[in-house]
Design brief:
Layout: H1 15-21, E1 26-36, E2 44-48, E3 54-57, E4 67-71, E5 77-82, E6 97-100, E7 105-109, H2 116-122, E8 131-134, E9 139-144, E10 149-155, E11 165-171, H3 173-176, H4 180-190, E12 195-201, H5 207-211, H6 216-227, E13 232-235, H7 243-260, E14 263-266, H8 277-291, E15 294-295, H9 298-308, H10 324-339, H11 354-370, E16 379-382, E17 385-389, E18 395-398, E19 401-402, E20 435-438, E21 441-463, E22 476-482, E23 489-493, E24 495-496, E25 500-502, E26 505-528, E27 533-536, E28 539-545, H12 549-566, H13 587-618
Parallel strand pairs: 1-2, 11-12, 11-13, 13-14, 14-15
Antiparallel strand pairs: 1-10, 2-7, 3-6, 4-5, 4-7, 5-8, 9-10, 16-17, 17-28, 18-21, 19-20, 20-27, 21-26, 21-28, 22-23, 22-26, 24-26, 25-26
Amino acid sequence: MKKLLVICIAISLCAAAVAFDCSASMQTITADIVGYDLSTVNGVVAYKAGDTDRTLSAADYSWGNAYILSFDKDGKLYEAGKGILPSQNDYYGAQTVVTIPAGGFMLAFPNSSTLMKAFNACFDGVMLYNATCSMTYDMTASIDEKTNKVTVNVGDPIPETEDTVKFLFVGNSSTYFNGNPIKFEALCRAAGLDVKVTYCTFGSAYLSEFANENHERGKALRHALKNDKYDYVVLQDAAGATYDSSKASIQTILPLIEENGAEALLYMRYSTSISGAQKYKTNYGKLSEEFGIKTCTSALAFAYCMENYPDINLIAEDGGHHSKEGSYLAACSWLYAYMGVDPRGNTYTAGMSADVVAALQESAYEAAVNYFDYGGGLTKTIDGVKYTDVAQGASYVPDGKVYTGNWTDTKDDGTPIGKLTDGIVVTEGSDTSVGCYTGTAQSITVNLGSLKSIKQVETDLFGQSSWGIPDPSGATVDVFVSADGNKFDRIGTAEMSEEEVNGGWKRRLFTVTLDSTVNAQYVKLEYELAGNYLWTSEIAVYGGDTANEDESEVAESEAADESKDDGQSIGADQSTDNNESVIGGSEPAVQNLTWLWILIAAVVVIAAAVVIVLLLKKK
């Protein structure tokens, strides 16, 4: 076991107090303020907040080359950052506004200012682009408006000890944005744990790049592992990474971590939607099991919070990264998963209100302890009954032509990769978990492996005009079921959901829900599309095991005979072929019992007749 149990720094103190009590000395830096609320930063410019938080937009200020230090009402360092730009088109994923806490103030300055000493001190090792993030460094500041001078007191970094537990975080902006590792360290210290975090993160980075010894990011990881010893290395892959690519990358990286003497951990990155959590739960869960590596449940914590506390915004203004609240939630998930510490009641708040902090801590705890059922995928409640997706992991046969590229669902040997039944539902068609085939009319037949009791069949379709992917509103999906894979009966045309739009992609769900369950082993979906591409992430079949498989088979035979007599198929829909068998139904089973009683009665009558004959012969 690594150093999971570490010494207390100051159990009775909050995180902020811990940060400010640990410095050995203070360095004082002074600078002249050239003005207040100026749009151009040619020196140190101060911006003050009143009794409430003040939000400023980069559209009104030239902060593109400015460095920023923000302080709260007590003069303690609150946030730091740089390069805030007015448009999200100017950079990759960051922010266009900054918020000064009530009663506090912000300083913006060029890299020629003496305040760069303070900035560099608090930003030691932190990775950040065009944004601000929470800071817990030992730093205070005050403004003298009479002399127009600012005084900044900079403490020393918290010293490492032989008991310090050291973390190296490896990943991209989903790790570093808004200072996730810093918040994790602050939560740990508030819990009395001596923890130090270090970054090896780059925007849009994939683990495959860190695994490649010739890639600049691979070189950076090897340099970090060579030049320091760590207790834990936390790995996070890009949103577009597949399970197979992450697995191959981890296989290469693990020996490097083991050589360092550290233990690998996984960070189950979040999604911007509840349904999107499914992909990361599945992929990181499988990776955790494959390599015996501990993972956190951040993605599920986000889903839980989105469902139970919808007023808390976990997503940043760019729509793809996490907000300050989301950053805190991820850090709480790490605290529970990596350190075994309940985040509820932790005194580090990152400057947020008590009710928001409590909700975020509760969400992290619930996801970790109760493994939040995020909806979709594994289970679903229909008409008050909980059903399982019995199609997960099932094989299927498509009749569409192979699509080549990142979104293909076809292996080199021509068989399906399995994307359509892997339990991963996504919200954007650009996600490589989507499986694709070509052709305007296609069908996919799913083999459930054995007879299942089916309540609902659901699939999704994506559209993107700039990609030439047809709008899903022009599609229809018919669903059929079969016991033997030869004779199919139509159970309905899928109802189309309202349109969702994410990242320019249009998405709709297509669902057939039955009044009562039917028994079948095969489910066929026939797609009529408004274009030449089938673009879908999942086919889900919600149901369960049949109560008595032998009885179900007899029922199917009787149902087939009945279907031939009256030409009716299951429910209100007509069979596409009156010679096809009907799957399921309860009335034939009753008929079977009737014939059973008649047979028993006949046997009894015959036995009685035999007894009478024997008695008469005796006489």
